Amino acid sequence: MIDAALIEQIANAVLAEIRSGEGVSSVPCERPRSDDTETLEDITGEECRRRILIEEACDAHALTRMKTRTNARIGVGRAGPRYKTRTLLTLRADHAAARDAVFMDVDQGILDDMGLFAVESRCADKNEFLTRPDLGRKLSESAVHDIRARCGANPDVQIFAADGLSSTAISANLPDLLPCLTDGLKDKGVAVGTPFFVRNGRVGIMDCVSELLGAKVTCVLLGERPGLATAESMSAYIAYNARVGMPESERTVVSNIHRGGTPPVEAGAYLAEALRKILKAKASGVNLRKEWEA
């Protein structure tokens, strides 16, 4: 039989190891306290990720500088042949965040606050969305009706968002990016269509939206496949005269939009200028490059 006292002793040792930081830290991570309770630090937080877990590092300052410039798991040390407890727990937490990003839906409250109406692709649920990518590239009949009824025809630029493979990316970036993008385009005299949100949508669904509304340029803001570095990365896929069956090479992509990459506000300003250039050149993707080189 397992000794309950021994289990308790091991558990207390593990907690003590986590709280101690398991090594030298150049970036302290404080734990919030109250009068009668203690809250453990967030091991997935940015400051805690910069913590050096290698004991007696040869150049702790150089390692600290490296950790501020990359999300790679460097300077994490080891305990014999295994990861240290903190590293293993962070890996598990990041994996859980990635799974949540894929399977959870964008909070309707966020869409309501932004004044975005929501439609759906032909996928009935998340399982079908993950197993039938082709259905995620097509609008449902109700979506076609709603978009026609609520959006103006023939805009210069039609912008919409889709959850893609990360609802977390939409929740984290869209509220800051979309207003900056639309305001930037309007300041440049570009006619912008009514933005909206597509649940269970993939990149190719922008072709259906473009044909439906007759947009000159279509831009979809989409959550990217999450990894263990971040689950909040969003990309903007842009196409001039997008149409069903168009080559993927005719899309322009701006990726790595998140707080650890290109911040959403900065990305919004950049996208406004990129969309203006695409509209002026009447080309996107590889065709845009050919246009500028001509």
Summarize the structure.
With 294 residues, the protein is of the alpha/beta class.
Note down, in words, how this protein is organized.
This protein is an alpha/beta fold. The protein contains eleven helices and six strands. The chain has a six-stranded mixed sheet, sandwiched between helices. Helix 8 (167-187) packs across helix 10 (264-281). It is elongated, with a radius of gyration of 23 Å. Mean pLDDT is 86; it is low at 22-32.
Main attributes of the structure:
single chain; DNA Binding (I), subunit A; elongated; 43% helix; 2 domains; alpha/beta; Rossmann fold; 6 strands; 294 residues; six-stranded mixed β-sheet
The radius of gyration over CA amounts to: 23 Å
Low-confidence stretches: 22-32
Question: How many strands in all?
Answer: 6
Structural class: alpha/beta
Q: Would you state the CATH class of the largest domain?
A: Alpha Beta
> How many separate domains?
2
Instruction: Kindly identify the CATH topology of the largest domain.
Output: Rossmann fold
How far is the first residue's CA from the last residue's CA?
79 Å
Query: Which sheet architecture does the biggest sheet show?
Result: 6 strands, mixed
Number of helices: 11
Strand content: 5-15%
CATH superfamily descriptor of the largest domain: Ethanolamine ammonia-lyase light chain (EutC)
Give helix % range.
Answer: 40-55%
CATH architecture name of the largest domain: 3-Layer(aba) Sandwich
If strands are numbered along the chain, what order do they take across the biggest sheet? 1-3-2-4-5-6
Integer average pLDDT: 86
Taken from the alpha-carbon principal axes, the silhouette is elongated
User: What's the order of the H and E elements?
Assistant: HHHHHEHHEHEHEEEHH
